[in-house]
């Protein structure tokens, strides 16, 4: 499966989304980034990808939860959400998943990283304080947004992966192994070509 953590375009146009998604034969789950216009949601809904923005999808015992856009930036980009909106949307979806006896692994696909993880630029940490509250409640967070901060970090039980920009040849291969008793092993290899 391919996970796309946003910034599919660089402020549009929407046609680029369809062109990109049609390149893959593998199933895709995607969310928009802060540099994507909000009209991208309709394009994703009508594409072969699963639009994971503000929704969840369970495959086997793994539940994928998605939230696109980013916390506020100084640049007033097209798809920004307030921290309280991020928190309330994620709280609802994550609580529902935690109460699902058929789901023992939670993967959170967000554009913005959690604050204090793979979110550091020259002025300091700039990730989402709302997403930071869910570290420890999910097994894996796949994010983007902070292009300069690609990397992998483990915080408690949560592995946070910012694979970097695919347009610069970056990505990550993530393997999730579920043991019978809910023990989850996550192996990550960053790709840098």
Summarize the structure.
The protein is α/β, with parallel strands linked by helices and 193 residues long. It has 4 helices and 13 strands. The protein has helices spanning 15-21, 40-45, 83-98, 129-132; strands at residues 2-4, 28-30, 50-51, 55-59, 62-67, 105-110, 120-121, 124-125, 140-142, 151-155, 158-162, 170-178, 184-192.
List the helices and strands and how they pair.
Elements: E1 2-4, H1 15-21, E2 28-30, H2 40-45, E3 50-51, E4 55-59, E5 62-67, H3 83-98, E6 105-110, E7 120-121, E8 124-125, H4 129-132, E9 140-142, E10 151-155, E11 158-162, E12 170-178, E13 184-192
Parallel strand pairs: 1-2, 2-3, 5-6, 6-9, 9-11
Antiparallel strand pairs: 4-5, 7-8, 10-11, 12-13
Describe the model.
This protein is α/β, with parallel strands linked by helices. The chain has one domain: Purple Acid Phosphatase, chain A, domain 2 (4-Layer Sandwich). The protein contains four helices and 13 strands. It has helices at residues 15-21, 40-45, 83-98, 129-132; strands spanning 2-4, 28-30, 50-51, 55-59, 62-67, 105-110, 120-121, 124-125, 140-142, 151-155, 158-162, 170-178, 184-192. The strands form four sheets. A six-stranded mixed sheet has the order 4-5-6-9-11-10, with helices on one face. It has a three-stranded parallel sheet with strand order 1-2-3. A two-stranded antiparallel ribbon has the order 7-8. A hairpin with a 5-residue loop joins strand 12 and strand 13. The chain starts with a strand and ends with a strand.
* Overall mean confidence score, pLDDT: 94
What is the number of beta strands? 13
Cα end-to-end separation: 20 Å
Poorly predicted spans: none
Widest sheet, order of strands: 4-5-6-9-11-10
CATH architecture title: 4-Layer Sandwich
SSE string: EHEHEEEHEEEHEEEEE
* Gyration radius over CA: 15 Å
Largest sheet: 6 strands, mixed
Annotated CATH topology = Purple Acid Phosphatase, chain A, domain 2
- The structural class is alpha/beta
Given the C-alpha coordinates, what overall shape results?
Answer: globular
The number of helical segments is: 4
Q: How many individual domains?
A: 1
């Amino acid at each position: 499966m391919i996970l796309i953590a946003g910034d599919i375009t660089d402020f549009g146009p929407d046609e680029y989304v369809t062109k990109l998604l049609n390149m893959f034969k593998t199933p895709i789950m995607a969310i928009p980034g802060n540099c994507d216009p909000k009209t991208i949601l309709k394009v994703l809904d009508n594409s072969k990808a699963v639009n994971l923005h503000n929704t969840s999808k369970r495959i086997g015992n793994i539940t994928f939860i998605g939230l696109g856009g980013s916390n506020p930036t100084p640049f007033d980009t097209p798809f920004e959400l307030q921290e309280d909106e991020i928190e309330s949307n994620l709280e609802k979806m994550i609580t529902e998943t935690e109460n699902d006896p058929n789901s023992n692994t939670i993967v959170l696909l967000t554009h913005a990283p959690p604050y204090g993880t793979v979110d550091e630029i020259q002025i300091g940490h700039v990730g989402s304080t709302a997403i930071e509250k869910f570290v420890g409640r999910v097994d894996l967070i796949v994010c983007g947004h902070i292009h300069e901060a690609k990397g992998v970090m483990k915080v408690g039980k949560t592995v946070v992966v910012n694979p970097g920009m695919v347009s610069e040849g970056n990505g990550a291969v993530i393997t999730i192994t579920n043991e019978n008793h809910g023990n989850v092993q996550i192996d990550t290899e960053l790709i840098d070509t």
